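Model it.
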Amino acid sequence: MIATDQRSLYIRSSPAHPKFSTSDLPEIRRTLEEGPDAARISTLKSLIVSLVNGERELVEGLVMTLIRFVLPLKDKTVKKLLLLLFENMNKTDNEGNLKQEFILVW
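Modeled.
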């Protein structure tokens, strides 16, 4: 499902991985906090697609929710998706210092 655009490479959203917007943040947070593992996996996959497509502000607004509610889970699929998401996020501020949230992870 990779398509090329004139400007860059992007991944199209699909019904399985819908495109999120900032108005979806409360629902995303609720799913990550209280949802079953299957729903969390689907949400993490959609967040990865959003991050790859350049919607960094959406994903970076969920860092503390991910650390508090998703990181302690024992499911290996969730762990792998979370590590992939963290790997692609910007972990430093404008001055090049590690962000405070990521001190909790590393």
